[in-house]
Amino acid sequence: GSVGKTSTKDFARVALAASRRTWANERSFNNDQGLPTTILNAPDDTEVLVLEMGMRGFGEIARLCAIAGPHIGLVTRVAEAHGDRVGGIEGVARAKAELIESLPPDGIAILNDDDPRVRSMGEGFGGAVVTFGTSSRADVRIVGLAVDDRACATFVLETPWGTTEVRLAVAGRHMAHNAAAALAAVGVVGGDLDAAARALGDVQLSAMRMEVQRAAGGATVLNDAYNANPTSMRAALDALADLPARRRVAILGVMAEITEPEREHRDIRAYAAERGIEVIAVGTDLYGDQPVDHPVERAGPLVEGDAVLVKGSRVAGLERVAAQLLAR
Predict the structure, then answer these.
(1) Per-residue pLDDT, 161
(2) CB within 8 Å of 276: residues ≥ 6 apart
(3) Are residues 244 and 130 part of one domain?
């Protein structure tokens, strides 16, 4: 998927490990070097191998599937990430669909029912299709989604294998979809759903993915600096808006490799403004303001009761900004 790959992989690894011997990629080792390395490093007694797959163009996921030979394919969501390389979001969808097209006749596709482009990947697929989402037609259904004062999601998951309650320790209501996808994988392999749901309550994601940390001065720092596209940016801004705070600031870097950069960045600026979030741009004027060289100083005093989001594409390198904030 375009968003949620590593978080879903982290969730799936922990959820499956509650009842199966499981191995998974480290961090975002999802290319033609990291994926084979993950396979080769798997212990001999591994029962379930969780492999994150990334793409930057057509044919890349098909090539990874030729290496891995997956039995189950899970697609999280289609968004604008790398859209400039494949002719836009429809090209992204075609590239992601290579995973489902590569599954064997008895394979299983786990698809996000709330994303029409992902849902359509099941059309014409000869194997079994299991959908997850919030709609009544989803096989694995998120019900009663709410967030606590840390912006962490709680919900009930209704599945063909039973109903279970999920309480996440990771910020962002969008994480409910990633957790639901992981629990769908538990169900299709015959794992223990309740044990998996309990295990998700202790999951810590890979670095720079919705990390909620406390700065020395008491402010809350939401570090989601690993990468960014319009969909993940909106999700992170929603998480910031869900945090109880006197003041909310978003320090944002460029969203790279999208097809309409000027429009998309201005839309994100407007989205933040609608939620009462101040935006400080770093390294780009696409948000409509002149970028600043010292965003932490530009933010001014940040104290207990304030919340700051740090997010941008990998090229922006905003983890340095997050580190500066934590030291204040």
Answers:
(1) 98
(2) 241, 248
(3) no
